[in-house]
Every structure is written in structure tokens, then in C-alpha cells.
Predict the 3D structure of the following.
Amino acid sequence: MTKKIILDTDPGIDDAMAILFAESHPEIDLLAISTVYGNATIENTTRNALYLKDKFNLQADVTQGAGQPLRRVPVGPTVVVHGESGFGDVNAPEQLCSTPDPRPAYQYIIDTVKANPGEITLVTVGPLTNIALAIQAAPEIAGLVKEVVVMGGAFGVNEHRGNVTPYAEANIYDDPEAADCVFCAPWPVVVVGLDVTEESFFTADFLDKLRDDAGEVGQFIWDVSRFYLRFYSEKVGMEGCHVHDPSAIAYVINPELFTLRTGAIRVVCEGPAQGMTLQKFDDGKYMTDEWAEMPRQRIGVEVDDETLLTLYRDSIVNYARS
């Protein structure tokens, strides 16, 4: 039985890798790509999503979402990582065949969840603004969503704490209020954060072989990854890149790849630790404990990285050959 997902994303190089992963796997039914600001402006992330829809004949709807955070001053696109357009050295054409669904992303999410009660997994790999807007506008969808899978955050597991500040991961830092809203809502959330995404690596050799074996799809992934790999080489000192956004798709396909830890989650929304994610994972009783009645969500703490990489490669290669 296929798993219906709406992929909320800010394409973005690793977002493109995740979109094609979701499209390629037979157990995923990619209903829609909802766009959000983050790696690029909302105009560029939406153009990039439409470009992928045209280039690979994706059947998923594309719907444009929020262009700025709920409250905080916008951080701005991560040009140093993803380039001006979001796709590194690759630029989507100005004129595209596909057009977005006329509804704003949050309304599309609400309508689709209500039309498919208990069936939709929301997978979010960018700032969580669209998801927060949806739950704020229609709180009743919390009981209708199958699961919310978030690529974001860092909890200090495996010595991973942040990638844009010492204690904040980019997606959460872009809109901490939205993330706190999503984590505190009464629906099941799984957070696939830096604790596990920085334990997996697409090496340069892995991407070269994917280019050679996966036809046009592999070539596209290789092309967009050039800018990304230059960033990792020059700024991080790695000959490869972490497997961030595709890890969220891997969780949906095979949750057993990940070991999870349960507990309430909050986000620091101001000050020098803005964007920091915290989880209460013990059962201790405290005189003052605002966490006690909050939803117990799950975070990834371990990953079978070798199996994840094999799953990604096999999915893309089989998709290209079909």
C-alpha cells in the first residue's frame, strides 16, 4: 500500500534530491509539493519545483506557500550553500509549462488532509511556516493527519548541535515560532534532525556512480550537486555532503532505518539560542514542569546509514531505468 505524502520544501539542492527520491520509490504517492522560502526566495523555490515537475513529468501538484516567517525578521536565502537560484549552477527557465495550484500552500494542505482523513503524511524539509499556518487555520486537521515528518533541528545527539548557529539548525532557525507551533500540536511528529542526517554522506564517488547509472535523473542530481559539493569542500572540509532532506523521505519509506527517542519538544524563539530544539526525554517529576502535558514526539538518534544510501541509489536507478 502506497503512502500518500505532501512534501513541503524550499528547493534547494538537497530538496531536489529528496523530491526525486519520493517520486522514484513505488511505496510513495507524492501528491503535492508545497513550496516555502528558505534556501531561496519563494519565487525561486516555486520556480524550481515547477521546473522539476516539467523536466521529470511529475504528477504531483505544486502549490506556493509562505514567503516569510510568522514573526521573526527573515534570515534571507542561503545563497552560500545553494546559490542564487537555489539549484546551484543550474537555472530553471523563466517560462515553464506547469503552473501552481491557485490555493496557498496552507489551504491546499488543509483541503487535502480533510479529503483523505488518516492517510496523509506531511513531510517538511524547509522552514515549518506552511505547516504552522495550516494547523493554526484548521486545528482539527491534527486528528486527521497520519504523521508529520520534519527534517530539522538538532538535539546534541552524536555531538550534532547546529549548522547555522552553534545551537540551531537552518530550517528551525528560519522560523522558530512555526517549528514550536508544529512540535506542540496534538499530532504525531517525527523529527529527522542533524543528529542523524549528519551521520550519512553522499560522497563524490557515490554521486559520480549515480550519474553514470541513473540516466537523466542521475545526471541532474550530479549537476545540481556541483555547487553543493564546492561549499562542503571549501567551508566544511568534506569531499561529499550530508544526507539531509532525503533522510526524511527514507524515514517514510522505511522507519526501521532509524532509532527514535520519545519526549516533548520545544524551540527557543528568541535570544542567542534562537532556533535551538530541546526535548524532555526522561520521566522525571519536577516541581515546575511545563513539558509534562505536552505531546510526546519522536526524534531520530541513530540511523543505518549504509542501508539508507543503498535505498536511495536503488530507488533512483530503478526509476531512471523504468
Residues 215-236 form the longest helix (22 residues). The CA atoms of residues 32 and 93 lie 21 Å apart. The longest strand covers residues 258-267.
